[in-house]
Amino acid sequence: MVTTEPLPIPRATRRPWSGPSSAQAHAIFHAEETRALTPEQRERWWATAFAEIGVDYDFPTINIKAVRSTRQGVAA
Q1: Confidence band (pLDDT; 50, 70, 90) for 7?
Q2: Contact at 8 Å (CB) between 53 and 24?
Q3: How confident is the model over 10-29, as pLDDT tens digits?
Q4: 2 or 76: whose pLDDT is higher?
Q5: Residue 44's closest CA among 26, 24, 27, 64?
Q6: Distance CA 60, CA 29 (A)
Q7: How far apart are CA 26 and CA 69, in angstroms?
Q8: Which positions ≥6 away from 61 have C-beta within 8 Å?
Q9: 71 by DSSP, 3-state: which?
Q10: Short-list 18, 23, 44, CA closest to 33
Q11: Consecutive H or E run containing 13
């Protein structure tokens, strides 16, 4: 019978999970306070809620960007 040494566990799997629990994420995404908000307001609320627990919410579900004016100037 041949016995072999078990393979070492990769280092990345030795670190504990540092993200929010599924219960925390569920509570944020299904918060009653967000039901009356517009999609943009809801997105910002989610980002703030995650920031409060120390998580960077960098995967927005809608495209929020600054409104830019397309006016060039007014000829006199």
Answers
A1: confident
A2: yes
A3: 666 566 777 888 899 999 99
A4: 2
A5: 64
A6: 12
A7: 38
A8: 43
A9: coil
A10: 44
A11: none
Q: What share of the chain is helix, strand, coil (3-state, %, to 5)?
A: 40, 0, 60
Give the closest residue to 60 by CA, choosing from 38, 43, 37. 43
Give, in order, the Cα–Cα distances in Å from 41 to each of 36, 51, 57, 61, 70: 9, 15, 14, 12, 24
Place of tokens 């929010």: 20
AA identity, residue 14: R
**CA–CA distance, 40 with 62 (Å, rounded to integer):** 8
Contacts (Cβ under 8 Å, ≥6 apart) of 49: 28, 31
Identify residue 24 by its one-letter amino acid code.
Q
Instruction: Match 């039901």 to its residue by tokens.
Output: 35
